[in-house]
Fold each of these.
Amino acid sequence: MTHPVLHNIHPFAKQPWDPDAGSHTYTPQILPKDPLAPYILGGTINLLGGSHQAGKTPMLGRLIRDWMSGEVLGQQVPQGAITGHGILTTNRSWQHGMAHSPAFKDLPHPLNTYSLIDDGTFDLKDFRTRIARVELLERCLDRMQLQRGSLLWVDPFALFLGSNLLDFDACAVSCLEIHKVLAARNLTMIATTATAKPKADQENTYPRLLDRIYGTASQLSFVDTCMYLATPDELQRANIYTLQVYPQYAKMLSLDFVKDDQGCFLPAPPDAEFVQLFELIPDSGNSIAKAALIDALVPKVMSRATLTRMLRQCVEGGQLVKSGHGRYSKPPASLPFPG
């Protein structure tokens, strides 16, 4: 007996493409202008990580102040790139806490502020699931009423990712959902995030500080620029805090800061050793061998190990270019001087 051939099509099998079918088309979302290309791009999520008590919140204040003043991360802020600033805090009161921080006092322009803790109208029992956490962000933004094209600062970010920061899939989907929320409102986000507790066994600690951010790697994979505020202990540099900036489409940037008596960040003065090193480095088109630098600086100015560390830091930060075997020069367009 001959059975009829059944042509069953699996629901996920590839179908012939129909250019006239509406389901195969989409309308790209209109993203805001780039606030600071290539370091902060419009409509993106950007993270600032650091250990507990490193000073991530005061660093937000520093960056907001610099942005409002027209120069941040050593770059000139493009005129008209953003329409305003708003800060959303999830773990501290603004009225009874952060508003009194010197880092946020006397800013050059108004700062739209909102604290989830200060808002007594929220019933947080409604936000137990991961999906509801993104809805929570939307409700907060409804209350803030930010102008389209604004820069949104979030301190900290974890609450909107769900209950398990170690769940790669859940955090990745949350980031994608948040991207859509930002695009719909024409916003760009810079948010703080924490690191895991330091391990007793230092051999099992991630050597790159950025990788110490707590949670799944999707936090780094599904955002744009990642920044890390390194403490003096982490870099073994007395009193110097280093902001490491890792953009997706440019070289890593490194900027040094010191804290004043009120805990606010100030640009660190140039290190005398760095000054003497840079005086020996030729401009783009010419280079100097490491051996010549050793002859000029070791041991009367610095040790050989210190020179090696400085050269590596400057190459990673983009202030120097390494060419050939152990030869160094300044880049064509000099990036900010270390410190």
Amino acid sequence: MVRKREQEHVDVALAGTNVIYAGNATSRSTLDSADVLTTTELREAVANLFKTDGAKGSAPKYSDGRWVCILHGDLLIDLQSDTTFNDTVVRQNMAKLESDPLMIMDWQGIRFYAANLFPEWENLGDATDAGNAEHDTAATITLNNSPGGATFGDHSAVVITRKHKKRLFEEGIYIVDEQDTADAGDDNSLDVTVPDTTAGEYLYNVYAGSATNAEGAATARANLNLVESNLAGGASIATLTAPPSGGAAPPAAWTADASEQIRAALVMGPEFFAVAKLQVVMPFTVPGPDSGNVLNLFTDIGAKWRDKAVITDQDYGVRIEAHTNQT
């Protein structure tokens, strides 16, 4: 339960609109292997928090007079190739670091923490179908001639994404597939089988809809909606005869290079992000297995937690995205 809550909170926090892309990149889709995290991006983030929108003043700091940076562990390793970073590390106040055992660095008015639950955006691909499976031929999408009023129209599209079972983030676009459904006489259905090639580490989401273009052309993913989520590897959806009438849309095309490995860091003050606790009930209990139970022993069987994470001010947080050379 705790990990699920953390994943949902991170998803919200990383949806902020104040973004810096490492190196020469101007968007996530333009990040390449040279665009790794350096102290240049960290200094730019500090400058953004100082000036915010130019009117409201600097982003508020935590009670110790600092902002916080939470970064993926891979980015921390990449930073070790930065001379300025290394020079700073050797001058750290050890007493200060020892007073906060989770802090790894204190620099430019920022406390740094490495995160073990951040997305690992990989295998991201663009929206153009190359005529079959974009990334993984283990996923199969079959077009059937199935009379009975299927409503995909002349063109259909399917996107399959993956989520690591432990991280839970929708991190990779596994396949983009488009079909000229008119080829089957406009009465058609789709059979979808998700991949089963990652040692059971991933779950899969399937999105489908009527494509805006013919097979082999880019399709606007806003036209697609979620069919099923959290499918185990190798699972199938049989005889899908119509696109969903609503529901979540698939993630945008993040990068045209499927080999890119993208990670994030978040630099923020306390008023950037908040979590409202709506309901807490923990734990649910039942009497222990001993029918005598003279000591009134109980066994915990679960818990309930309801909260809502929100970004309270976009100007008070900066997301940095960078390529990583770690595998």
Amino acid sequence: MKHASTLLFGEDVTAWSYHKMIAHIAKTIDTYSKVVEEIAPNKEKLVANLCTESTGNGKRWTLKQAADALRVFSNEQTEMNFLECARMMNQVEAKLFWGTLLGVRKPITKETFLLNILKDVEKEELKKLNYVGNSFSLNSVLTDLLHTGNSLGSNHHIVYRPRPLKSWDDSVVLTQYNGAMVQLIEGKGRRRVEKTSECVVEYEDEIVTDVFYLEDVELNLQERLEKFMQSNRNIPVCLPQSIPSWAVVEDWAEKNTVRFPDVGVYKPNEMGGYLLVLNHLLRSVRVCSYESNGGEAIIEMEILDGTDFLLCGKMTLRSSNNLGLLYTSLERSGEKVNPINNHKHLVSDDVCLVMDLVSPTFDTNKNEFIHPTFMAFNLEKGIQDITQLVDLVV
């Protein structure tokens, strides 16, 4: 069964990316990667082209030989190139071999495979055991069943990966989702998972963001992290906290990671929470007036409602750098800057200076952004780039 799970589902195989395979082929046949990409622009066409190199009857591999060859080739434990490997297979074997190596989606999942060979097992039972999709070791589960007969469930069979995180937008009400809790994680690191005999630990670089205790599955996020801290005092842990303010959160998100976690019990096959991705909340508005007052300027801004401009609130710029950008951008847009303080200056109707800002929410009652944060004046944009009201209220 070990060899079947390797060939069918890629267990014990280090999957190759499309670009890695392209580079390998280009190096083998001494050509440019771009040439190979033009012939095989996606994984499916790449597999089809690789199969054409297997024109004979192959070596008539046994299941073990085929699985061993796939493991060795994928982990680069051989000097054999793709041509030498292809000529050892027929086209049926090649399609399975290259498809598995490149991680081409299989027609069925491990979960479906189990349901079909274990007729007395219900889907809900597999879900309770977290045997969902391909997130467990099929070989381990079947080996246990062969030796123990009725031992289907074990946390040790689950293949743990970083749980998916979605980009947050204001359709998700955080007070309802997680009690308005946030993790402010220093830096923008690589997410990874480490499994010990006692728990599964989620990291953002070297900072622990979540823990799952295999024998204590009812703990919430706060309880899990506090338990981990008691026995791992030298490892940095990011505890959830109440959202301090949107200004703080957005300022932090520019160079660091803002995560709105699921604070309930750990569910290996479900979302881990949401991320604040500033670029996904970027809005473009037109500067319609400004009022200078010493070291700051109050800007009025507009969005579009169809073809008509609509006021959408004010923003205060206090940084001397940002004030300089405002005046310089106005002049480059064709607007004559008026230096008089404490006086509201309307920008000419034929001037469209676009300002990019970030705002998590838009108040549809007042038609204004809540907690807008200045990002940049964008001279490359025009009226066609201004945010439409309909995009904010849908």
Amino acid sequence: MRQLLSLHTLFIMLSAALAALAGVMFAQDNFAMYIYFRLLYFGETLFHEMGHTIFFWLFGSAAIPSIMTAIGSDKAGGASLVLFHHWSVQLLAYAAMAYGCFYCYRNRPLLFYPALGFTLMMVIASFTPIAHWLPIYMGQGGSILAAGVLLYRGWLGVRMETETERWLNALYGFFILFHNAQFSLQLMGDTAERDAYENAELTNDFVILTDMVPHWRLEGIALFTLVLSGVVLIASFALAAYFTESERYDAGF
């Protein structure tokens, strides 16, 4: 806990302010802040598309991430291109998760039970409709979870070469969470923003989910995303404060 309440924490909080500033100032007609926002947004898009892609593979679909626009003005900054679905890909995913559990058991014991629990949930989900829903949501969800890891590393500063790396981890983590929260609030409370999202040239993730899942509404998915962002923000700090130094290194962080 003492490590978290230090001068480093002031720099982490400064990164939070800069991340929040990117979202606020982007709404203003400021070219410098526009470029700053887009550079951060491009990084978020990478995590977003990797989230889709990883979960497509976990549920038996070969896919590759594609970044469509680096600094464009559209909201669909990328896409995950699904190539095909085949039972052999699903078996490969099972094998990869099983190996991950074995690796954690031998080398990262602190992560073994979380890895085992995740694997069992994925195997069970692969036989349910969740296998079709989850890869669609995990663009948003994957970027939020990645932000949690970045913030966790930012709080602790372990396994990093320089303080700049620590600051950048925190900056990107805060930006992704703040941007997802801002996006969710807009979908929940701004009719014009919601209409633009629903009628975009490319069908957006939440719209696909409302078509796939009975009784799901856009506002409800946005609310879940907002809550998830808050939970991950709190959890990143709580885990950083809880684990001892040796436990953090055992976990690989």
